Structures are given as C-alpha cells and as structure tokens.
Amino acid sequence: MAVSPPVCDFDAPWHDFSLQGTDGRIHKLTDIAGERGTLVMFICNHCPYVQSIMDRIVRDAKELQQIGIGVVAISANDVTEYPQDGPEEMKHLAERRGFTFPYLYDDTQATARAYGAECTPDFFGYNADGQLQYRGRLDSSTRSAGPENARRELFEAMKLIAETGQGPREQIASMGCSIKWKTAE
Known about the structure:
- The chain is an alpha+beta fold.
- Helices cover 28% and strands 21% of the residues.
- It has helices at 29-32, 48-66, 87-97, 110-115, 153-164, and strands spanning 2-3, 18-21, 26-28, 37-42, 69-75, 103-105, 119-120, 122-126, 132-134, 176-178.
- The strands form 2 sheets. The chain has a 7-stranded mixed sheet.
C-alpha cells in the first residue's frame, strides 16, 4: 500500500543525528549540512518506489552537492523483517550506484521518528538555517520511473532554497512504501 507523508511544515527545525554509514564511519548532521542547505532523504534498498528513481536520486544529489547543498540518505527499516535493507546490502547498493553522499543506517529508528518520516522515499529539504522548506516528491515517478523529461521538482526546490532560503509554496507529497517499523518487544 502506498503512503504519502504530510506536506511541508515550513520552518520546522531539523533534527540532529549521529548514525553509522556504509563507509563504517559515524556521521553527524553538522558534518553533512551544506553551506546553502541540506537534503535529508529516507530511502531503503527494497522499495520499488525508490528503485524506480535511484538513478535520478544519484544524479540530483551530485548536482545539488555542487551548488552547496549537503545530502544524506538514511534507511530506517526493520532489518529483521527486511534483511535486504541491512547495512551490508546498503553498502553494496551505495557502491554499485556510486553514491556521492553518506548512506546511514538508523538502527533504533529514533532519527526517522524525530523527522516524522513515513515512507520511502521521503525527502526533507532544509535551508542553511536548518529550517524545513521542502517535503515533496522527487518528480512524477511512482512505482515506475516517470518520463525522462519529468520536471525535477526536488532539484528545483532545493536550488531555490540554496538561492533564496525559501522553498516553493506549492509542493506535491512524495509517495512510497511505508517505513517498516520494528514491533514492540
């Protein structure tokens, strides 16, 4: 079942984290934050919505980093139920796809809960002051990739944030698989 998160809660603060990356290092938000803004993406390996846009995520992240936007991807899924989303598989995906950004594992799911992440993919675009300015979709893609010439909504929004500190007021929510929350023990 597809899930859509709520639309942007403008100016909501970002949430600090300290998470292990596929590179074996601990990454903090302050290390990742860009001089002109920061994009925090909740993704995972197995979700067809993420898989359909992975090439576009990698492309847009690389271009955003070139204009001063810090980029990070976080997977928070329960790996007991979804082992393909575990750290070793994440490492292989990041290497195979040529990630230019850290791919972090949120083992406790505390970071995903702090952000209010609901689905994969779920994009949170912040300005240089750490204020939320975008919580929309990458483009018109769904479980399958949209047209090659689809409007690059996430990229355009983050570029606007880098230039003005403000995100677009009209945003279309992302859609994807629900975060796979751990069951209470």
